[in-house]
Amino acid sequence: MTTPNNADLECKQTDFLGAANGKDNIKPICMPKKIQLLTELDKGSGNDGSGSSTSTAMLYDHRYNIEVCLFNGEKLPNNENYKWAIEYISPSLPGKKIRLELKQQGARIGLEIDDIDYCGCELSIQAYTDAPEKFIELKQLVHHRFYWVDKKRIDQQIQERKSEPWRIDQGRSSLCGMAALFYVTIKNSADRYQKIAQDLHRMGECTIDGFRIKPSAKMYEIDPANHGGYKRMNMWEVDWIVLAGTRSSESNLGYHGLESGNWDQFAAINWPGMMEDLVKKIGGYKQTKAVDVDLLTPLTQNAFLSNSRDPAKDLPKLDEIDKSYREGKQVLMMIDADMLSDTLGYKLGDIAQSHWIVYEGGMVKDSIKQSVKFKVFSWAFDPGSGVKYQINQVLPDSKASCPIKTSGGILFSSFTSNHYGHIEAHN
């Protein structure tokens, strides 16, 4: 939108009464000016909560030609040497107006949207000749960096996870480690999680305590409403941006946020050393400790253990985990996913079955049944009630069958044959 003011008037001289008395009687007619776009805007999300509507706006890393012209669209009668500036309020500095004087001059310029802080903001693009306070203005929105992802839905999902962290859902992806990481991040600082989620959506990257998260640029182009690869992952928008975005940032194997085959799933695996590091850098915990877990644990344990091993000898590991939990520590367990279905493990080399969960207490042993109960966070089920919000549902699905059997009890052998180790975190 262009807003004319007293500085916007181009005066033309016109013979108003003719030359009846031999002298020209001149009356000035003032024409307002405006700034007009010469480059077509780009499509992106309408940000209305529907997840499917679209709108047009400027896009990061694109160039838009703009010019000062008369309000009726005609060219200026003279080529005035306009100066240009941008003003906007950055969400990174609430309440503070930022003003940037551009180097370009003239009635027409090419405006580069080259600052990620512009993303998600309304820019006041100003042109003036002498006095900066007397300017012509064009107000124009800039898309978020994830420009196809609905901001209203992102904000709602952030608040839901701040109040119920277990709603973080890896869907059909291999991002269990990232789900566990951000689950304990919220438990440590919900505001920290909110900053990461909002910054990633708006700017495509986030720096927190000096640690930078920047996913593959390919993720920014994905339209959740129309991309088949995204839909197959069955993830909420904020979980995809945060979990896949963080894993992409940390990947040396080319993980781009989608999993269409075995290589993508392998690239998304959350290795123990990386997990311990991120619990500090992203989760914000001051102290971490890896217990009996490293890169080779799933391989070596399954190679040397067997079904004949006495499960009672490994149960003290669960006692140690429960003790750490009762001391106020967060415990991220690396297991074989078969544990959650009460199935015996020991499958040599099946590292793709490794799974990260978070221990949530409630341990009860039954020596007669040779079983143990305890609560965990996994797959976006509430550790207490077992309910889950299915994708795009407003209310929890109380009829959903919870595949996590640990809360009802699993055999000692199902624990010991599938438990690899854990990471403790506390402040």
How is this structure best described in words?
The chain has 427 residues and is α+β, with helices and mostly antiparallel strands. It folds into three domains: 2-141, no CATH class; 151-285, no CATH class; 286-427, no CATH class. It has helices spanning 151-163, 176-188, 190-203, 228-233, 237-249, 262-267, 272-281, 297-304, 316-326, 412-416, and strands at 2-3, 9-15, 26-37, 42-45, 54-57, 63-70, 83-89, 97-105, 108-112, 122-128, 136-141, 206-208, 211-213, 287-291, 330-336, 354-359, 364-366, 371-373, 376-377, 410-411, 419-426. A hairpin with an 8-residue loop joins strand 4 (42-45) and strand 5. Helix 2 (176-188) packs across helix 3 and helix 3 packs across helix 5. The longest helix has 14 residues, at 190-203. It is elongated, with a radius of gyration of 29 Å. Mean pLDDT is 87; it is low at 9-20.
List the helices and strands and how they pair.
Layout: E1 2-3, E2 9-15, E3 26-37, E4 42-45, E5 54-57, E6 63-70, E7 83-89, E8 97-105, E9 108-112, E10 122-128, E11 136-141, H1 151-163, H2 176-188, H3 190-203, E12 206-208, E13 211-213, H4 228-233, H5 237-249, H6 262-267, H7 272-281, E14 287-291, H8 297-304, H9 316-326, E15 330-336, E16 354-359, E17 364-366, E18 371-373, E19 376-377, E20 410-411, H10 412-416, E21 419-426
